């Protein structure tokens, strides 16, 4: 066999003496695509981070021999020309030269990985300038080209945008552009398409494949999306509780899985709760909807360059006259590409963005006076896409879950609030027996799926009638996604909750929605029942989404 680009032997990782990765072995050949799959908490991400010694406070042992360092870097590190380097024992100064240039990484959560104080163009240009030594103007043009290569429209304008001004998918693409800035030999991709819709996933995979062939780049892909693994990877390694339980060619693993855990992952496609769907569908048609919108329009002011901008402002219309209604106990699924206006629609539905048109929730219209919205804010709660950034890292679980009660039921005694918090946590499958000291823990002590359950408990504690679910499972692996969707369906069945579900995942729509609305560039292209829209789509764009899924 040819010399591997990366050869990992007996990799062990522990935190405060507690092992989390137990002596795993794997290798990646030049130009190969290896996928590391497993549930949240299985050790996938910490394995990738440890290769560049980015896992803070971790004790790492074993070997990770990398042969892709260029000759100049080998000379600077004291190694002879063409000699491999051992990443885990390499001096920090030498390793710093490898990071970003020879080995690059795409992080899972771009909102926390990107600096909120600098535009995305400046952050990409900084990498190009530091690693390639280009002038400032050349680095800026290179940043714009990288953004365009990753499929971001209007790259010149988006380069001047700050991370919070981009959609989740656009932020992820900016992270990919930053990672590919120096054409690395090895790309560590930690959930690189988590926030992207199905059509853009294909574009990003095509882009990575093109760059891999052009530069001989190898990819270590960490993902929970098994469809992505089937389409992209050459080999797959399955991790469970810090062990690699099975690895081999993609066709072999998916066609004849040997380990029970591998079979469990493959069988974890979202499933519809037939009982919940039947009960919701049986409701009377003349009941007042929990949310109704007529010609809902959301626009943002945009600066005009030059002297004209001193006297006049333009606008960018993110939602162009959307109309819908959500009856009690039913789910409206909104699907579309990144930047289509889905999340803007969700924020407007929560009264968090100014809008024109008519919008009522729980029989009440949003008011410009915050005090008059208190009742509606209790009736309409939200579960955001990224639980890591939506839960305060400084607050305990008790403070996070009880926060709604302190606003809406301030007269409750501390003991009553604590009891209500424990009940809300139990409703989402988290108890003190399962997690000792649950109420006094912090969000970082839980996995991604557990953090999302905390977010759902925080929303449920004030007994809302409608939940706005903004990509509630996009950051979760397939088995945890299936559990969270089953939890949401059970809660809808038991409590009669209505959902406004924002997602790019057609499988999630099929499992959860009763009605579907398809959006693109702010327009509603098609809407109707689940079967009408997904089984017999009328618009060409809807057919593209269904086919891509």
Features:
single chain, 549 residues, alpha/beta, Rossmann fold, 3 domains, six-stranded mixed sheet, 40% helix
What does this structure look like?
This protein has 549 residues and is α/β, with parallel strands linked by helices. The chain has 3 domains: 179 residues, P-loop containing nucleotide triphosphate hydrolases (Rossmann fold); 65 residues; 173 residues, P-loop containing nucleotide triphosphate hydrolases (Rossmann fold, 3-Layer(aba) Sandwich), CATH 3.40.50.300. Helix content is 40%, strand content 24%. The protein is built from 24 helices and 20 strands. The strands form 4 sheets. Strands 6-7-8-3-9-10 form a 6-stranded mixed sheet, with helices on both faces. It has a 6-stranded mixed sheet with strand order 16-17-18-13-19-20, with helices on both faces. The chain has a 4-stranded antiparallel sheet with strand order 2-1-4-5, with helices on one face. A hairpin with a 2-residue loop joins β1 and β2. About 4% of the residues have low confidence.
Count of DSSP-assigned helices: 24
What is the CATH top level name of the largest domain? Alpha Beta
- The helical percent reads 25-40%
Largest β sheet strand count, sense and barrel closure: 6 strands, mixed
Strand order of the largest sheet: 6-7-8-3-9-10
Per the CATH scheme, the topology name of the largest domain is Rossmann fold
Q: Report the CATH superfamily of the largest domain.
A: P-loop containing nucleotide triphosphate hydrolases
pLDDT average, as an integer?
86
Strand content: 15-25%
Radius of gyration: 24 Å
End-to-end distance: 37 Å
The CATH architecture designation of the largest domain is 3-Layer(aba) Sandwich
Number of strands: 20
Shape: globular
Low-confidence residue ranges = 71-81, 276-284
Number of domains: 3
Structural class: alpha/beta
């Amino acid at each position: 066999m040819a010399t591997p680009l990366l050869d990992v032997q007996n990799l062990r990782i522990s935190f405060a003496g507690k092992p989390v990765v137990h002596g795993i072995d794997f290798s990646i050949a030049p130009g190969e695509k290896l996928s590391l799959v497993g549930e949240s908490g299985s050790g996938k991400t910490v394995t990738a981070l440890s290769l560049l010694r980015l896992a803070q406070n971790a004790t790492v042992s074993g070997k990770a021999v990398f042969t892709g360092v260029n000759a100049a870097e080998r000379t600077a590190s004291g190694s002879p020309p063409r000699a491999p380097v051992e990443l885990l024992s390499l001096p920090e100064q030498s390793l710093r030269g490898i990071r970003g240039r020879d080995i690059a990484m795409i992080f899972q959560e771009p909102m926390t990985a990107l600096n909120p104080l600098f535009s995305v163009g400046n952050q990409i240009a900084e990498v190009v300038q530091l690693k390639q030594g280009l002038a400032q103007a050349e680095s800026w043009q290179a940043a714009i080209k990288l953004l365009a290569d990753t499929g971001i429209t209007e790259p010149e304008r988006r380069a001047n945008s700050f991370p919070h001004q981009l959609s989740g998918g656009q932020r992820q693409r900016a992270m990919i552009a930053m990672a590919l800035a120096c054409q690395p030999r090895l790309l560590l991709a930690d959930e690189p398409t988590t926030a992207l819709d199905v059509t853009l996933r294909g574009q990003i995979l095509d882009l990575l494949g093109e760059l891999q062939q052009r530069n001989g780049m190898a990819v270590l892909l960490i993902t929970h999306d098994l469809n992505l693994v089937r389409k992209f990877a050459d080999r797959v390694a399955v991790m469970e509780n810090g062990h690699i339980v099975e690895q081999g060619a993609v066709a072999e693993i998916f066609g004849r899985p040997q380990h029970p855990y591998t079979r469990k992952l493959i069988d974890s496609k979202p499933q519809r709760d037939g009982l919940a769907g039947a009960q919701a569908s049986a409701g009377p048609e003349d009941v007042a909807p929990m949310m109704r919108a007529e010609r809902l329009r959301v626009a943002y002011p945009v600066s005009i360059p030059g002297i004209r901008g001193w006297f006049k402002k333009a606008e960018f219309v993110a939602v162009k006259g959307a109309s819908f209604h959500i009856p009690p106990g039913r789910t409206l699924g909104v699907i579309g590409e990144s930047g289509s206006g889905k999340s803007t629609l969700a924020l407007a539905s929560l009264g968090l963005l100014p809008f024109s048109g008519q919008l009522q929730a729980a029989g009440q219209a949003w008011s410009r006076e915050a005090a008059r919205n208190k009742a509606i804010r209790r009736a309409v709660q939200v579960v955001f896409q990224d639980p890591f950034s939506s839960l305060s890292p400084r607050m305990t679980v008790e403070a996070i879950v009880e926060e709604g009660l302190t606003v809406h039921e301030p007269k409750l005694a501390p003991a009553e609030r604590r009891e209500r918090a424990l009940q809300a946590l139990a409703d989402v499958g988290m108890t003190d027996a399962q997690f000792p000291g649950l109420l006094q823990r912090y969000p970082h002590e839980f996995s991604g799926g557990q953090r999302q359950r905390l977010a759902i408990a925080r929303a449920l504690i004030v007994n809302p009638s409608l939940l706005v679910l903004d990509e509630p499972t996009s950051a979760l692996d397939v088995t945890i996604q299936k559990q969270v969707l089953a939890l949401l369906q059970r809660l809808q069945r038991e409590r009669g909750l209505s959902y406004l579900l924002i997602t790019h995942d057609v499988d999630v729509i099929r499992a959860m929605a009763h009605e579907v609305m398809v959006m693109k560039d702010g327009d509603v292209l098609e809407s109707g029942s689940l079967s009408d829209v997904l089984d017999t789509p009328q618009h060409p764009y809807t057919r593209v989404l269904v086919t891509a899924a």
